[in-house]
Structure formats: C-alpha cells, structure tokens
Amino acid sequence: AVDRRRKRRNKDNTRIVDRYLEMDEIRAVLDALEDVPIDSDTIAFQVARARYIVLLLFFSGLRIAESANHTMGDFVQHENNWFLRVVGKGKKLREIPVPDALLQALADFRFRVGLASPEPEFEEKTPLIPMQKLTQAITTRRIDQIIRWAFNLGSAVFEPDHPRKASKLRSASAHWLRHSYVTYLLDS
User: Fold this and answer.
1) pTM to 2 decimals?
2) In order along the chain (188 residues), what is the average pLDDT of each group of 10 residues?
3) At CA 32, angle to CA 28 and CA 171, rounded to 5?
C-alpha cells in the first residue's frame, strides 16, 4: 500500500518544498507584532511571547512539539557559545547553535516576563515556551494559534501592495518556520 502521507516528489525523486517564508515576510510579522497596541500586561505578554516563538522556531528549526516539550534549561553554553539541546523525532539528541539574534530575543522575552536573568540558568525548569504564569508549558495547539495570529497580523502589512504575500502569510503555519530556517541556512 502507498503511504498517502508522503510528500509529492518530482520525476528525479527530490522533494519540492515551497512552504517557507522569505525574510521580508518574517520581518513584516515581527514589525506587525511591534505595532500591536499594548493596553494591558496580558497583551504585553502575548506580544512578547509571539515574537519570541516566531524567532525561536525560525532560528532553531524546531518542530512545535519539540518546543512545547523542552525547558529553558535546554539552552546550554559551551565556552562562549550557546546551543539548544533538543530531543527530536526518534529520540535523537541534537544541539542547535543559537545565533546572537535568537539569544537577544530570548533575553528580551525573559526580561519582559520578569525572569531573573537574561540567560537561562543551569538546568532551569521554566518551560521553553511558557504559559503566562511561567510554570506550565504551552500546548502545541496554542503555539499554532499564536503563530497564525502573528502571521495574520503580518499579512495586513502586505495586503495593499502585495496581496500574494498577504495570502501566503494567511496560509502559513508554524512548520513553515522550520522550512524557512533550512532555506535561510542554505542561503547563508
């Protein structure tokens, strides 16, 4: 029987991945989040967390399930370099280099939510993506909702002059950030 879940392949048996976001689309999402009116602590937290999630998934290439199942203590430092230690599919352990932009986003998020230090403490138990009380991890469903909300905000930036990009952002999901990460690495 044919596995219907397999990705469609072209004639030379390579995958065609066109579900990724370009840098201007990611910037539009981040800019739109910066423009959200902050009229309560709850909104401030939601915006800060959404920005952090977008950057975390983009710069790490994590699946949303991986991001929901890890803690801040999974950020590890070797000499002067930071890595995110992740157990992914098939129980495979990998260490993902953390670029300065993600480390800054992490520090900003931690500051905005009142965590004690800009960098995670050794074996810190705070969830990698916490709920507002910071003690419980967010669900994968909620991460997906937050990402879609952020992408919809970003789509409004493109709506007047670039309706195709706006439509693309409205169709995007969290997994597109994983594809964007790979595309970004290849381009770099």
Assistant:
1) 0.83
2) 48 58 88 94 91 92 88 94 89 89 92 91 93 89 94 91 90 80 56
3) 60
